[in-house]
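Input record (Table S2, row 233):
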Amino acid sequence: MSDWIKFYDFKHSVIYVNARHRDVHYRTIAEDIRKLVPSSTAHVLDYGCGEATSADLVAAACAQLVLVEAAPNVRASLTMHYAGHPKIAVITAEQAAAQPKSSFDLIVMHSVAQYLSAPELDRLLAMFHSLLKPSGLFVLGDVVPPHFAAPAAALSLLRFGAANGFFWAAVSGLMRIFVSDYLRLKRTVGLSHYTEAAVIEKLKSAGFRSERATHNIGHNQHRMTFLARPIAQ
Ligand SMILES: C[S@@+](CC[C@H](N)C(=O)[O-])C[C@H]1O[C@@H](n2cnc3c(N)ncnc32)[C@H](O)[C@@H]1O
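Output record (S-adenosylmethionine complex):
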C-alpha cells in the first residue's frame, strides 16, 4: 500500500475539516459527476472514490456505479454504507483491473493523479482506455498545476467554507493539516503536478483525444478537469 493510500485509510480523513465539509465536498463532486453521465443506461466507474457519501446521486442517474477504493478501511466503510444498494458495487483496485474490456460508458478519476507517480498514472490511463467502451468518456479531475497549488487550495477551502457554513472550521482544519502527516508526505513522497499541455500529451500517449473542461469538478477552480475520449483505431 502506498504512503498516500495509508494517509487516506481512515474512516474520516483529516483532509475534511468536519462532517459538514466532507458531506458538502462529496455532494458537490457527485452533482458534477452526475452532469457527465451520458444516459440512464450508462455503466460508470469512479476510481479512487474516497468516502463518496453522495454516490447515490450519481447512481440515480445511471444503470450501475462501480466505486473503486484502494484504502481498505475506507472501502470497508463504503461497502457497509452501500450494502444492498441495487446499483452500487464497491471493489478493490485489483478487481477494477480484472473488469472486462469495454465495460464502461464513463470512467472518472478525481483528485487521485497527484498521489501517483508518472508511470503509475500511465499504467492507470492504459487500464481505463481498455475498460472504456469506444464511445465512452474518461474524466480526469482535480489535476494540480505546478504553480500556486498550496495557496490556491487553502483559499478555495476558505471560500468553500464561507459559502457552506464551515468557515471557522476550515481555518482550524487548515492548521490541523499543517501539523498532520500531509506536509511530511508531501516533502518525502511528493505530489505530482502537471501543466495542461502535459496532461493532454499524456492522455494522447494513452490513446485519448482530450480537452480541458471549462469547470473543474468540485470547488477548487485552480485545478483542472480533462474530458478524454478514445481515439478511433
Ligand atoms: C483526495 S482523495 C479523493 C477522493 C475522491 N475521489 C474525491 O475527489 O474526493 C484521494 C484518493 O486517492 C486514493 N489513492 C491515493 N494513492 C493511490 C494509489 N497509488 N492508487 C490508487 N488510489 C490511490 C486514496 O485512497 C484516496 O481515496
